[in-house]
Design goal:
heterodimer, A: mainly alpha, MetI-like fold, 2 domains, 14 helices, globular, B: mainly alpha
């Protein structure tokens, strides 16, 4: 009872404060939340209101962390960069914070994780205790340690695969744009064919033939995603190639290599960086899907996708532990998307009215 | 009318050629196996006689090109040979499963398409409001989550916590339609969530793009009421992008189905493909890949044709 009274009192006071200080949007949000809560409270009772409180609390916490992290980045970086960072919305700051955290977890995994990734320390599916933060998995390995190691293995694999796809696709795209002619036509047709096969299906086909080895996964992903990068690079570089300064450089007698490195690349970096982020999301989800199907990184190496599959039986007992690695995948993808959104908005004509 | 037909025929021809190239890739990729199929199926410990027998049975002694042509001729008649693991004809093994998958995809599409387009248009009209921001973040989260994450969350709440729907979609012949809908509700809902998010974002982008064009500005300036601007001026031009969005997402649905089927143990073709991949049952893998690729191409083709039909400008290329 006290909770419900406190809940409404807080909301009403906050809305009044917002209205008094002329914060129109904030007021509208808070007061409509109050009205919605009436309905929710009648339908769902106290648990529903509690869920709303927890959710709002989490949201506020994430907002505060993002704000602090943005201020931290601004304070740490130089004049130029700080100016850019000030334009970042909170979502982008949140994304950067998450990426930063994952990077730390991945790089320092052996020091952060209390146990080794393949170390059996307990019985199967042992519940959480003071030694194990999240309990044990299906073989009695520490779930928390495996999640930390997963940041290194899963993200590392996705990053390697994305970089390979990017190098192949971008090189081909730049060459096609500068050289033109039959090479351009040929690469375009190849890209068309590869892109008309659904990516997951193509990956499954390749893995069924060459077996689920790490290098096979990397090559398969590179082949599948290189055409997308190729298309974008081709389009971006195609716009640069027609510029007068390229013509001037050609007349100077510069070679293709110089043109690509010194003239075209510096003028098409921004969209390419954003594309790298998007591409990483696709690759990461594809690899997560593959390892969920048991065709990714092979055990005993810790990997988020296969961890979900192996521990899925726990879900039927109402335990959410198997969802944590899946949530880790989703969180990183969302974070990268947030940052990419901001970069696209900043760098290109995608500014919506 | 004549040039529309010829345009469509041209697209169809292009689609067929693509499919042919893909069938070549699918077939000859298996030829890249170290050793050959018989070796891969029977493993390292196989005796020479067993290998020879299997090669004979699968016709591996003929040259690859001949086998490809035979396979293609069979595929056109929906005969993909027989499974190397069970010996069952492939068509029999995956025929019913394909129907099940189509049912699941159709179920999801029927819910998702009207829902997503309505929401997409709404969000485009309310752009840059709190509602739009919330929708943006929510759909982004849905897109960024792996399908199995959404699937397990739904299982956790709808079947474990609240006991409303079954977590495993076991289908049996002779089930009533209502029962079928109930059993397949959770996998369909997972697909709906993912596809709706994609479609909403794409519809929103298409509409906003359109609303920025000068003739809409003109219509507004001459005092046309907002609903009339949408219905009379924006919508006729929005059909092409919307049809495109729908077809692309249906194509996405076809592949998204693989993971969802595995989560819910749904007896569909995606599950069959995953099983065949781990058992290295190549005839089934090839057949499934070809079917998925063909559906994908067909839907992309439908998108092309749909946008040509609804947009007069595309009918008369300069």
């Amino acid at each position: 009872m006290a909770f419900v009274v406190g809940y409404y009192a807080l909301l009403v006071i906050a809305s009044c404060a917002a209205a008094y200080f002329n914060q129109r949007k904030l007021f509208l949000m808070l007061f409509s939340l109050t009205l919605v809560s009436f309905v929710l409270g009648i339908v769902g009772g106290v648990p529903a209101l509690r869920a709303v409180t927890i959710f709002a609390g989490l949201l506020a916490f994430a907002g505060a962390v993002s704000y602090a992290f943005r201020e931290f980045l601004i304070a740490m970086s130089g004049e130029e960069l700080a100016k850019e960072l000030r334009t970042a919305p909170l979502t982008a700051a949140f994304g950067m914070f998450v990426i930063f955290t994952y990077a730390i977890a991945g790089i320092f995994a052996p020091w952060i994780a209390p146990y080794g990734e393949a170390e059996i320390i307990s019985t199967a599916f042992a519940p959480a205790d003071e030694n194990m933060l999240l309990g044990a998995d299906q073989l009695g390995r520490d779930m928390f340690s495996r999640i930390i190691y997963g940041a290194r293995n899963t993200v590392g694999l996705a990053l390697t695969a994305t970089v390979s796809a990017f190098v192949i696709g971008a090189t081909a795209g730049l060459l096609a744009a500068t050289k033109g002619g039959w090479f351009d036509q040929f690469m375009g047709r190849v890209a068309d064919v590869i892109m008309s096969i659904p990516s997951l299906i193509f990956a499954l086909l390749m893995l069924s033939i060459f077996g689920p080895e790490i290098h096979v996964i990397i090559i398969a992903v590179a082949i599948i995603y290189a055409p997308r990068v190729f298309r974008l690079t081709r389009a971006v570089a195609g716009n640069v190639v027609v510029m007068d300064y390229i013509e001037a450089a050609r007349l100077r007698g510069e070679g293709t290599g110089y043109l690509i490195r010194r003239e075209i690349l510096p003028n098409s970096t921004a969209p390419l960086v954003a594309e790298f982020g998007l591409e990483f999301c696709f690759v990461f989800l594809l690899i997560a899907g593959l390892s969920f199907l048991g065709l990714g990184i092979q055990p005993p190496t810790a990997d988020w996708g296969s961890m979900v599959r192996e521990n899925a039986t726990l879900i039927s007992f109402g335990d959410i532990t198997p969802l944590i690695p899946a949530a880790a995948i989703a969180l990183l993808t969302v974070a990268v998307n947030f940052v990419v959104d901001w970069m696209l908005f900043r760098s290109s004509g995608l500014k919506e009215q | 009318m004549g040039d529309i037909l010829s345009l469509i025929a041209k697209r169809l021809g292009l689609g067929l050629i693509t499919l042919l190239v893909i069938s070549i890739i699918i077939f000859f990729m298996v030829e890249l196996l170290p050793g050959d199929i018989a070796q891969a199926v029977l493993g390292q410990g196989a005796t020479e006689e067993n290998l020879a027998a299997l090669r004979e049975q699968m016709g591996l002694n003929k040259p690859a090109v001949v086998r490809y042509l035979e396979w293609l001729a069979g595929a056109v008649r929906l005969d993909f040979g027989s499974s190397v693991v069970t010996g069952e004809p492939v068509t029999q093994a995956i025929g019913d499963r394909f129907i099940n998958t189509l049912f699941l995809a159709a179920y999801a599409a029927v819910i998702a398409v009207p829902f997503a387009i309505t929401l997409g248009v709404l969000v485009a009209l309310l752009r840059n409001t709190v509602f739009d921001r919330v929708a943006n973040v929510t759909t982004l989260t849905a897109i960024s989550s792996p399908e199995f994450f959404l699937g397990y969350i739904l299982i956790l709440f709808f079947s474990v916590r609240w006991g409303m729907f079954p977590a495993i979609s076991s289908l049996s012949p002779g089930m009533s339609f209502g029962e079928l809908l109930e059993r397949t509700f959770l996998p369909a809902l997972t697909l709906v969530l993912v596809v709706t998010a994609h479609m909403m974002r794409m519809t929103r982008a298409a509409i906003i793009n359109l609303l920025a064009s000068p003739y809409i500005e003109m219509a507004r300036l001459k005092g046309t009421p907002p609903w009339r601007v949408i219905v009379k001026h924006a919508l006729p031009n929005a059909w092409a992008p919307i049809i495109n969005v729908v077809a692309l997402n249906l194509a996405y649905l076809i592949t998204g189905v693989v993971l969802v089927e595995v989560v819910f143990v749904y007896p569909g073709i995606g599950q069959a493909l995953v099983d065949a991949v781990s058992k290295r049952d190549f005839p089934i893998v090839q057949a499934c890949c070809l079917i998925f690729a063909a559906t994908f191409i067909l839907l992309n083709l439908a998108a092309d044709v749909g946008s040509i039909l609804t947009n007069p400008r595309l009918r008369h290329p300069k």
